[in-house]
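Form 7-S
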Amino acid sequence: MKTKILLIYTGGTIGMAKDYETQSLKPFDFENLLKHIPELSLIDSEISFTGFQNPIDSSDMNPDHWVELAKIIEKNYHVYDGFVVLHGTDTMAYSASAISFMLSGLQKPVIFTGSQLPVGDLRTDAKENLITSIHFASLQENGKPSIREVCIYFEYKLLRANRTTKISAENFDAFASPDYPDLGESGIRLDVRTNVLRVEDESVDFSINTNLNSNLGLMKIFPGMSRSFIENIFATQNMKVMIIEAFGSGNIFSFDWFKELLRKKAEKGLLFIVNTQCAGGMVEIGRYETSEIFKEIGAINGFDLTTEASVAKTIHLLGQNLSSEEFKSQYEKDLRGELTYLKQY
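Output:
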């Protein structure tokens, strides 16, 4: 029996075709997809198409669009064996991370992909990315999908969605998973590394959680930051969480005024999350003296979360109306394979 795969188009370069007379890019009609990518007819799957009524540039993607996407998956979950989400590359890692947290009991593949060049371009990467994403989504073993998590496929690599970050705006090899092994690779054969795949408890029914709250801030520190700039950021109204991208393993400058500002904001209920700016490695609060202030105010450890996963996880957890203690407990817990826990000093 053929597997049934649903393509969901949200927008982005992969859904654009070049008008060679004007050299402009125009939205692609997916009903004519086989005309542009005839190789799809060779795939032993039934492929259907749907998407946003008004496709968007991924730079305009926001939590409302994540909800729309989650609802499309929920509506079609029991009809299809797998899902391939076509998405612009700029915010793909944010959206894919968010969807990973919004879907519970997932027992089917949800694979995000896109392209750096439009499908009609002579040198496009769209064809390979789309065809192989469908192949990965179609893989079955003993009548069950081989992949049962949210992924990103790009340039021969299958990556866990919430471990992925965009690393290049120019190269076809645009995404990487700095702190977790690739889930699979496309070569002569499709290689799926089952030992690193995530498997949800099969007793948990599939459901979506669309309660999101984006009252958070993100601050990347740098040498020479002015006091007025930092104080203005912390004066933002209704902010419930501040994510600080610190140096190294969670280090910060040790100015007395800054420490006092952190203490006052923490006393008023602002939650602090500490991430590292480094592409690899993780936060270890208390390892060095310059991170002691975070330990003092009870800051939340971001471990090795990517920026994209950190933002998406925060928006998801803020939507659950948790107490500060519950939020910290859930944030520091591995919910969807997004972090590596390390005992702190």
